[in-house]
Design goal:
Largest sheet: none
Structural class: mainly alpha
Shape: extended
Order of helices and strands: HHHHH
Low-confidence stretches: none
Strand content: under 5%
Distance between the termini: 71 Å
């Protein structure tokens, strides 16, 4: 009897592990659709900013709209890289304006500070990457 319980436990654990491994490999190559991106971001903001249900719905709608427009810009092959970046900046400005209408001043400040920190971290990462690239050129040349 103990052997059956032990065997079933091991079998259950193995199946659970296999299912999780399958999900994680699928997620790695998978691109989120607009609704998924909006849901993920809205969920995070809901937790971080203590949004009301009405705010959560409004933030979700804004995020979904911006994500759809961003995906459209990414897929638009007629745009140059510079035009695409300008479009992304326009969409970010639009999101900021719309968030300001939905969030309280303290929520907006907290969100804006979070966004600024994210951008600063990204710039540092890009600078380090550029420095490494230049160091390789110098050492190879």
């Amino acid at each position: 009897m103990k052997n059956k319980i032990w065997l079933m436990t091991v079998l259950f654990a193995a199946l659970t592990f296999a299912a999780q491994a399958q999900d994680s490999t699928h997620a790695r190559g998978h691109r989120w659709d607009a609704a998924g991106k909006a849901d993920k971001m809205s969920d995070k903001l809901y937790r971080e900013l203590d949004l009301t249900k009405d705010q959560r719905k409004a933030i979700y709608d804004i995020n979904e709209d911006v994500a759809r427009k961003r995906d459209a810009a990414r897929k638009n092959t007629t745009l140059s890289a510079r035009q695409r970046m300008q479009r992304y900046q326009e969409l970010d400005s639009d999101r900021n304006r719309r968030f300001r209408e939905v969030l309280s001043p303290s929520q907006y400040k907290k969100w804006n500070d979070w966004e600024l920190k994210k951008k600063a971290d990204m710039e540092k990462k890009m600078d380090r990457k550029q420095d490494k690239k230049e160091a390789r050129k110098t050492s190879a040349g």
